[in-house]
Amino acid sequence: MDPCPFVRILVGNLALKIPVASKPARSGVHPATSPCFCKIRLKNFPLQTSIVPLIPPDVQFPDGQPQTLAASFHLSKADLGKLAAKSIFAAKPCLKISIYTGRRGTTCGVNSGRLLGRVSVPLDLEGTESRSCVFHNGWISVGKNAKGSSAHLHLNVRTEPDPRFVFQFDGEPECSPQVFQIQENIRQPVFTCKFSFRNSGDRYQRSRSSSQSEPGSSMGWLSSLGSDRERPGKERKGWSITVHDLSGSPVAAASMVTPFVASPGTDRVSRSNPGAWLILRPGDGTWKPWGRLEAWRERGSSDCLLGYRFELLADASGGMGAAGIVLAESTLSTNKGGKFMIDMSANGRFTPANSCSPACSPRNSGDFGYGLWPYCMYRGFVMSSRVEGEGKCSKPTVEVSVQHVNCTEDAAAFVALSAAIDLSMDACRLFSQKLRKELCQPQDVMR
């Protein structure tokens, strides 16, 4: 398998020095004592925001300051080409950072922060697919006044190559599609998927040898990691998808171990009672748990957010049992969809507070979040998967960092995880809405 070239632009090690003003700010709060944040822009990419720590004017960064990642931008070869094409007729692409004092957010539709100034860092991205490059590392004046009275921002802007394997489903996961590896204009089949319903009557009875395509029915320990809820009423249960290599051997699976059940008196799967999947890998003649994905529907006025949490599980020899490390926890729009992402370098998007394991937050590291605790093997960008909104044709595209794929089973596990998060969008639909026939038990379709 040949990877596709990707480049990551990393922005980090932010700090701000503001000179002591002779007069207080109009708001009555001196800027040096109020919180600060910044908005980081790269053309054609979503805006990102980050807190900017304030340090006294006489302190030299990074003494005593945590070195953290504030933002990261992921550029494919096509993205690099677009930026290079634009630079022929205009200046080189620039990273633009706007610094604000005050708290983030809006009040009555008006931004609550006060603009302190802007900085711009030119980017020469030629050749960055194969080499790292530092565009800025140190202090820079903020605003028009470049004299000693101006504020100064410390930042590090650099790029690093991040080659990835790219896989694309040839259809919706519930339609048992093929999965292709994509490299530029070449599409090569690498996996096949089989969607099925687990038979609740013999859920834990058969061995893998007699039912390789139904991993959910082959493991007696499955009930200890999931929930065997069997309650009357509104629920979706028993879904399973198995990933096979081209020889027909099962190499990964996703099995719904906790049914998606509507909370009492509602049509919604709630955060307090989420459904769950186990992501499974073959090993020692049986299936072993690799990860656990929980999903629910967030409560809100618009009622259009899918919440999720993904935990990495250790094998039986790891002594972790059902406890795991939370690698991803966020939301996706049920209307527009979005990207499910595991990025262990994104300090602002990774919060291990709910993890049952020792803290492995990137904010404890010395280099943009790479100093993770030794039991966590994943570093930097891990994977992403595009998820479409409800009612839209979904053919997930999965990107996996090369450094996290050592064998076919590694790639297949991420493909199975991608299928699970995509199917969770349907599993968490309001129970007042009907699912497509492929997602309904045969007896339900006949009714």
UniProtKB/TrEMBL annotation:
Biased composition (Low complexity): 207-226
Ranges of Basic and acidic residues composition bias in the record: 227-236
Region of interest: Disordered: 201-236
PANTHER family associated with the record: OS07G0133500 PROTEIN, OS08G0163500 PROTEIN
Protein name, as recorded: Formin-like protein 18
Taxon lineage: Eukaryota, Viridiplantae, Streptophyta, Embryophyta, Tracheophyta
